Amino acid sequence: MSGAPRTSGPALVPGLLPHTVELGCEFGPLLLKSPLLAASGCFAYGQQFAAFTDLRALGGLSTKGISPLPRHGNPLPRICETAAGMLNSIGLENVGVEAFVRDKLPFLRDLGISVWVNFFGTDFATYIECARLLGGAPGVDVLEMNISCPNIKQGGIEFGTVPEVAHRLTRACVEVSGAPIVVKLTPNAGDIVGMADAVRQAGAMGVSLINTITGMAIDVRSRRPRIATTYGGLSGPAIKPIALRMVHQVATALPGLPICGMGGVLSGEDALEFLMAGAGCVQIGTANFAEPGAVQRITAELRALMAELGLRRVADAVASLRPWPLEAAYQTPAAGEFST
Amino acid sequence: MSGAPRTSGPALVPGLLPHTVELGCEFGPLLLKSPLLAASGCFAYGQQFAAFTDLRALGGLSTKGISPLPRHGNPLPRICETAAGMLNSIGLENVGVEAFVRDKLPFLRDLGISVWVNFFGTDFATYIECARLLGGAPGVDVLEMNISCPNIKQGGIEFGTVPEVAHRLTRACVEVSGAPIVVKLTPNAGDIVGMADAVRQAGAMGVSLINTITGMAIDVRSRRPRIATTYGGLSGPAIKPIALRMVHQVATALPGLPICGMGGVLSGEDALEFLMAGAGCVQIGTANFAEPGAVQRITAELRALMAELGLRRVADAVASLRPWPLEAAYQTPAAGEFST
Amino acid sequence: MTAAQFEARVAANTRLGGGYFSLELEAEEPTPVAAARPGQFVMLRGAWGRELLNPRAFSVLHAEGKRLTILAKAYGQGTRRMWALRPGEPMTVTGPLGVGFPDPDPEITDLLVAGGVGLPPLHMQARVAAAAGLAGKQELFYGGRDREDLVLLADFERWGVAATLATEDGSVGVRGYVTTALAPRLEQARAAGERVRVLSCGPTPMLVAVRQIGLAHEVQTLLCLEENMACGFGVCLGCAVPVHGVKPYRYCCTDGPVFDARELRWP
Amino acid sequence: MTAAQFEARVAANTRLGGGYFSLELEAEEPTPVAAARPGQFVMLRGAWGRELLNPRAFSVLHAEGKRLTILAKAYGQGTRRMWALRPGEPMTVTGPLGVGFPDPDPEITDLLVAGGVGLPPLHMQARVAAAAGLAGKQELFYGGRDREDLVLLADFERWGVAATLATEDGSVGVRGYVTTALAPRLEQARAAGERVRVLSCGPTPMLVAVRQIGLAHEVQTLLCLEENMACGFGVCLGCAVPVHGVKPYRYCCTDGPVFDARELRWP
Ligand SMILES: Cc1cc2nc3c(=O)[nH]c(=O)nc-3n(C[C@H](O)[C@H](O)[C@H](O)COP(=O)(O)OP(=O)(O)OC[C@H]3O[C@@H](n4cnc5c(N)ncnc54)[C@H](O)[C@@H]3O)c2cc1C
Ligand SMILES: Cc1cc2nc3c(=O)[nH]c(=O)nc-3n(C[C@H](O)[C@H](O)[C@H](O)COP(=O)(O)OP(=O)(O)OC[C@H]3O[C@@H](n4cnc5c(N)ncnc54)[C@H](O)[C@@H]3O)c2cc1C
Ligand SMILES: Cc1cc2nc3c(=O)[nH]c(=O)nc-3n(C[C@H](O)[C@H](O)[C@H](O)COP(=O)(O)O)c2cc1C
Ligand SMILES: Cc1cc2nc3c(=O)[nH]c(=O)nc-3n(C[C@H](O)[C@H](O)[C@H](O)COP(=O)(O)O)c2cc1C
Ligand code: FES
Ligand code: FES
């Protein structure tokens, strides 16, 4: 397969030279060197990747989710593979705020790329504590607030699925954080636009879409779930169509709200789909496991593809999707909705 | 790959001879010849498959969704492929109740397998009309009520996502139908257990889980959605982990409610996963496109696998999942929930 | 000649340049595809797991006994994998499917207008005609981007079928679109009172142009369409083609892939 | 000896019976895997698209210069595809990863307890020892289901490493589990005041038994574990191993795959 010739489709405009493509872009108040970032939980705290890739080629990275106290994570097995995807139930294992700021942050700060610190709590108080401590730490560009964990006890699930609760939680964190807050939403919520709007009104700078989707797999021989906690979070290319749809829904309903899109990006073309759907930047998660240089490769692919399509700046791509022309003879009059 | 030797894992009990496995099973009040049925929209009205496969080897089939009047469907493109899945927006194109009963039903009735007629309306009145006309037609074993179409105007989306609305709609249809009603739920609903419970209390004989998940794909060269209606329904192996999880959630929360599971079944092992998760029978959809004999092959695989695992009857498999033993040293004390 | 699904193995995979390749498959026994008419197609799928779910449609280029050959271009996921297939690798075939072109007619000249991977149905039409001694009633109009985009030309030469070539870069034949040569030919036929019809297959923009030219000249124009297909045998309803009439759609896989230009609800 | 990710091609794929195969890969240049110790591993992934996302872990059987070899059994999706790979096909390799077994020691006899695809680390330990003239300090205990489950025995013979074999069906060696032979050997060592340690790799139930026997006899017991891995370099946190101590888990890929039996929070 790898040797097959590249036969390109019709270019929209004459191509550009790749080096003339400008990947630097704005995301809300931020200036990113590139719209491609490494996703939370898939890049640890960055160090392990230095042996494999040039971390400065990244637009930024989001850290493993940080909680006030260290967490040890879930029983095993914690991961398994599914068709074009994987399930995980790591259990938000992390070193805790104190060790993170002391041991991990200095390394990240020195990279000169956008540092997003993903965090979560188990209740209002711990969320707020995290936002205060991390949002004030030097070198933190964004606090990415994970309200998606379907596992936390004490009504935690409501953080990610009930708009009013998410609104209150976001407002409380925004008030104490020195850094802008991007809220990471869960696709398990029934009404993703309602959730995005709720956190936007609470002062979130933007939203990250999407976290993993709750899923399950069974080993029929042992008759056990393949993940010890029965359910796990589905990531990878399998979820890309769902992620793209949610990004497009939110971008269409709430124009102007910065969206960081993610879910199954493995190539520059995948990343461009997210930009066109309305994401201002894109995170890459699962792809890093197989290929520690994934973000760098995908960045090169994105640049080449943008050049081929005559897209000089990231802003030329963002939300540039064209609707199907209703006047075309290929269309029946009533379009715009779908059913199977 | 095809030539690789089969090296089986540890059998739980000594294997059985495949012909001693009894695939006939109960599903609510029904007696099925096999727990494997063809899924709605993926088998048309059956005839096309007669050239390729023995339709009598099926446990049953669910027809393309029927509405009171014929429908012509959506503009094109209507389908596209995604990683381990496909999107479709056919638009519920169908011949309408009258032509169905006159031209299609007799063929199905004569097959001697369980005939599930999938139906939908555009409002309360048309749903009820369908249930009355189809539920009274001879040869209809089950009415599978599709409340999942995210596209129908006039608040149609509420049918599938708001429990009270689904409850009222189901009750109204159950009252006029001569055949038992199985309600097909949408995974786009935030609270799948709440939806299942609502329709159960309204008199549904069971539930079908899951319909397609709303998704999107973009052709970056034309900058257009790959589906003319922008969004389409995602099916295939990509969604299997999500479907299994929903089946397990409903089976666990509402034991006794018959569940017809589906989503991405391509093999006997996939089907057995659904049975173990709690489905009493399983539908096979997208697999039929590539392989018109898919249901028959999967049935043979299921039989062989059940024999290997010592499962003599379907009931031995249904909801037979074993939890991870909490006492095992592999476990930390607090288990049972998951997070990424 | 009802369709069947059967297993076959790659007998040969020949790279023709420009990403084109002809793939020859062999089954255990003679297959029903051997009876395929020009324009009929098969659905093909390799042993490529769960990633690519659905088979892809390919016009039959040639089929006889246990063997069948298709012509394709490495483009998307499926054709790129097929490009790399090696002899002995398995493929699942379903076919023959669809309704093809009408038989060559001694009274009528077929103007075969081909673009890119649209060549196979017209190639088979020319072969069938040549075998029936009607090569003189076939004329090929074949367009592509460049020299590499025009393949299997030697066959037409061998059969004695005249060919008008066009490339966008002018490297072979006239520079520009193949459709440019069609209108004058139709004028000429009209002037000479010659009976002609147009059979065409290729990229949609080309077919749109062929249709307009054919309709303008009031000659029968038959277009072989390539819609996205999931099943190929009338079940998924994915391959709808917009038509005039009571029903807004017909199906590429069962009603086509060959449609009369007048029928299409196209620009 | 830091790990790298590099491309390689299949140089040879040898089927050994029973679904076992040894896969030899060759890179363009000498690779860091050549420095791998017994017990270290590589992550391998073929050009198999988006269906199988993550690479699979394989112990290094042998590596030198540009070449590296692994031993595997066709079992799941990945190994079944690998079983079918042909010379020239590409694979992506990451490694060497993890912490391996300690060096052979002239003062200590290594009792190498292997089951199934757990052979490679012990095979390499024996080879390294033999090269250092310490073959006499290595003893293999190797168990499987049947004759076909025991592979590469000739190597141990050539190196002069004594082997005790066990099969569940009794077709080779003693009938039953290989662990049955371990306890008497440890008794004997204790009685003779001989310094021994146990190095083991294989299916988890076997390792559980080896651990209990080793602990009961108070000899150093090092187990090479095979947890599900997504990354292999300490990032996904999927390969947690339950241990005693303040933290309930360590990581198979970076802290292991070799763990001291005492450390494991196992039955
Ligand atoms: C009846 C029928 C007959 C056909 N006969 C042939 C044939 O003989 N030979 C042949 O090569 N193809 C033929 N096709 C087209 C072929 O089935 C599709 O192009 C198929 O999508 C290719 O599969 P893929 O996986 O490579 O690309 P996909 O991944 O399915 O396609 C990706 C995208 O690329 C587009 N695309 C695919 N191929 C091309 C191309 N060559 N140029 C520009 N855009 C393209 C598709 O429309 C799609 O949007 C036929 C189609 C039909 C319906
Ligand atoms: C450090 C390390 C070293 C390893 N070294 C080797 C090695 O040298 N050779 C080797 O063959 N494997 C080795 N493995 C195991 C191998 O990585 C896994 O078995 C891998 O899952 C196989 O991939 P697959 O796609 O074939 O199976 P998957 O699809 O990933 O596995 C499906 C299921 O089968 C189970 N399974 C996989 N293989 C077997 C088997 N042989 N017997 C019983 N159950 C099995 C898995 O646990 C999983 O639950 C090693 C693993 C680790 C962590
Ligand atoms: C192993 C693993 C761990 C993850 N941990 C976190 C986390 O700590 N916080 C978070 O917000 N998202 C976490 N995620 C979700 C990813 O950041 C991302 O949203 C998701 O995986 C979809 O992107 P992908 O398909 O590119 O992986 C994790 C994902 C994986 C696979
Ligand atoms: C092309 C297509 C058409 C479908 N049409 C219907 C339909 O008319 N009514 C319905 O309830 N489900 C419909 N479905 C959903 C399937 O019945 C099934 O729920 C879904 O595809 C998941 O199963 P699968 O992954 O095995 O395909 C359709 C699915 C596809 C792919
Ligand atoms: S391709 Fe499925 S109906 Fe035509
Ligand atoms: S395999 Fe990813 S952390 Fe060990």
Description:
The complex is a heterotetramer, with two copies of chain A (340 residues) and two copies of chain C (267 residues). Chain A is built from ten helices and 16 strands. In chain A, the strands form four sheets. Chain A has an eight-stranded parallel barrel with strand order 3-4-7-8-9-10-15-16, surrounded by six helices. Chain A has a four-stranded antiparallel beta sheet with strand order 5-6-14-11, with no helix packed on it. Chain A is globular, with a radius of gyration of 20 Å. The two termini of chain A are 33 Å apart. The N terminus of chain A is likely disordered. Chain C has 267 residues and is an alpha/beta fold. Helices cover 20% and strands 34% of the residues of chain C. Chain C has five helices and 16 strands. The longest helix of chain C has 14 residues. Chain C is globular and about 55 Å long. The two termini of chain C are 35 Å apart. Chains in contact: A-B, A-C, A-D, B-C, B-D, C-D. The structure holds flavin-adenine dinucleotide (2 copies), flavin mononucleotide (FMN) (2 copies) and FE2/S2 (inorganic) cluster (2 copies).
Main interface pair? A-B, 84 and 84 residues
Tell me the strand order in the biggest sheet of chain C: 4-3-7-1-2-6-5
Broad structural category of chain A: alpha/beta
The assembly state of the depicted protein chains is heterotetramer
Total strand segments of chain A: 16
Task: Indicate the low-confidence ranges of chain C by residue numbers.
Answer: none
The count of helical stretches of chain A stands at: 10
Sheet having the most strands of chain A: 8 strands, parallel, barrel
Determine the N-to-C terminus distance of chain A. Answer: 33 Å
Largest sheet of chain C: 7 strands, antiparallel
Low-confidence runs of chain A (pLDDT<50, min 5 residues)?
1-12, 327-337
Order of helices and strands of chain C: EEEEEEHEEHEHEEHEHEEEE
